[in-house]
Design a protein that fits this description.
Helices cover 41% and strands 14% of the residues. The chain is α/β, with parallel strands linked by helices and 280 residues long. Helix 4 (120-132) links the parallel strand 4 and strand 5.
């Protein structure tokens, strides 16, 4: 295991990096190659999850990269089967073995327990226990609505919640959740920022990209980061990974931001039956 930095020696309030690599739907060698290329290009935040089935591949690529553990920010997410007090920590320990590390920088509840089968307070207290054991530097949530965020804040306090990772892109700007989170001081991470590629085909985003001498993907990612969200785009192609990373250097002006804000249409893409909460 790589142990060059200890979570106890690092701030428990370290911010979520604004830019990282997502690994959703990446399997086997494709996952290894994506992470390896990203780390070689300068990515230092990698986001995975138990249900992705690629934690071992992420760990393999990280170990082979030679990048010091203390320079990396690793995120994983607890699947709904493991949200009970007796299962959460053991499942996280299994994730750490696959990732070849002693701790993750951030661990999230991936989805709220379907039907409230496991009380949210129980899961959050188990996450807090994992943090106190040094298994994670920060804890947080994903796919939480305003009501769920309110419940989470009541259970452990807003300071404990590092981020709420939600579907968020120009077609789904999720303003009710974002506004509530910001009011509580809870950071927001955007997933699906490119909307399964829909943002690349949008005429307004294409026009802004042409004005900025950028790509549509860079525009969408820069919009999210300038809005204060972290982004975790994924790709299996090195040239796309490199291009996406350049979004960190793109600055949109206020008029561009307003034009993208006007694209909101409630266009939700991720809504799994039996798993999704009652969205705002």
């Amino acid at each position: 295991m790589q142990t060059s930095a200890s979570p106890s020696s690092l701030s428990s309030h370290a911010p979520v990096p604004p830019f990282g690599l997502g690994t959703f739907r990446l399997k086997g060698q494709a996952a290894i190659d994506s992470v390896a290329n990203a780390l070689d290009l300068g990515y230092r935040h990698v986001d995975t999850a138990q249900i992705y089935g690629n934690e071992a591949e992420v760990g393999q690529a990280v170990a082979a990269s030679g990048v010091a553990r203390g320079d990396l920010y690793l995120t994983t997410k607890i699947w709904t089967d493991h949200l009970s007090a007796g299962r959460l920590v053991p499942s996280l320990q299994e994730s750490l073995e696959k990732l070849r590390t002693d701790y993750v920088d951030l661990v999230l509840i991936h989805w709220p327990s379907p039907g409230g089968a496991v009380p949210l307070a129980e899961s959050l207290e188990a996450l807090a226990d994992a943090q106190s054991r040094g298994l994670a530097r920060r804890i947080g949530v994903s796919n939480f609505t305003v009501a769920l965020l309110r419940e989470a804040v009541a259970a452990v306090g807003a300071d404990m919640i590092a981020t709420n990772q939600i579907e968020l892109h120009p077609y789904l700007q999720n303003r009710a959740v974002v506004d509530f989170a910001r009011g509580q001081g809870v950071h927001v991470t955007s997933y699906m920022t490119l909307g399964y590629g829909q943002m690349l085909q949008d005429a307004e985003i294409q026009a802004i990209a042409q004005e900025c001498d950028a790509t549509p993907a860079q525009v969408a990612l820069a919009w999210a980061m300038q809005s204060g969200f972290a982004v975790i785009p994924s790709s299996t192609r090195r040239e796309h990974l490199e291009s996406n990373l350049r979004a960190t250097q793109l600055r949109l002006d206020d008029a561009h931001m307003r034009r993208i804000a006007a694209l909101d249409r409630g266009g939700r893409l991720v809504d799994p039956e039996g798993l999704a909460p009652a969205w705002d």
